[in-house]
Design brief:
By secondary structure, this protein is of the alpha/beta class. It is built from three helices and seven strands; from the N terminus they run H-E-E-E-E-H-E-H-E-E. Strands 1, 2, 3, 4, 5, 6 and 7 form a seven-stranded mixed β-sheet that branches. A hairpin with a 5-residue loop joins strand 2 and strand 3. It is elongated and about 90 Å long. The C terminus is likely disordered.
């Protein structure tokens, strides 16, 4: 009896006390798909050609604060452009005044060392002394003393360095 024949011929139907969980499962699957699509979009999307490093990567915090120096010497905090004059105020707003926040500093290969040091000095003058330099991770070459790094073949790594002012 696949159809379930009713034995009573009255107008009253019996109440069903079971919970239909199929709509809940459908909603959960839709939410899972939404989060799977949205997760990769939550990263920094500023294109910069990073130099490579063979240093051991430092641990990455839950929500890192990236300061990017692009090839044209413009600055970005995360994905938002910021003027050099507004860097300290913007960092204070983003970090809620916590000067011990680690700033991950990324710079394009084409950025001059002097310009890069100016940005580090801006960070130091603003009170942010925990600076981690970000570069591409490469494997050290066993035989040759200087080996070119493959372009864009490895994930980014951060190397923590103390922010000391001045030029050596």
């Amino acid at each position: 009896m696949a159809g379930g024949i009713r034995e009573q011929h009255g107008d009253e139907l019996s109440e069903n006390h079971e919970i239909n969980v199929t709509p809940f499962i459908d909603v959960m699957l839709v939410l899972l798909i939404i989060f799977m699509v949205a997760a990769p979009l939550a990263t920094v999307d500023v294109n910069v050609d990073l130099p490579a490093s063979t240093a051991k990567p430092a641990e990455r915090p839950d929500e890192p604060l990236y300061l990017t120096v692009k090839e044209d010497l413009s600055l970005n905090i995360g994905n938002d452009a910021v003027a050099r004059e507004q860097l300290a105020a913007t960092l204070d707003r983003v970090t809620e005044g916590k000067k011990d926040t680690r700033v991950f500093l990324r710079a394009d290969k084409a950025v001059d060392y002097g310009q890069f040091m100016e940005v580090m000095n801006l960070l130091r003058d603003s009170g942010y002394l925990k600076i981690a330099l970000v570069g591409l991770e490469t494997l050290p070459a066993p035989a040759s003393p200087v080996a070119p790094a493959p372009a864009g073949s490895a994930p980014a790594a951060a190397l923590a360095v103390p922010a000391t002012g001045g030029n050596p």
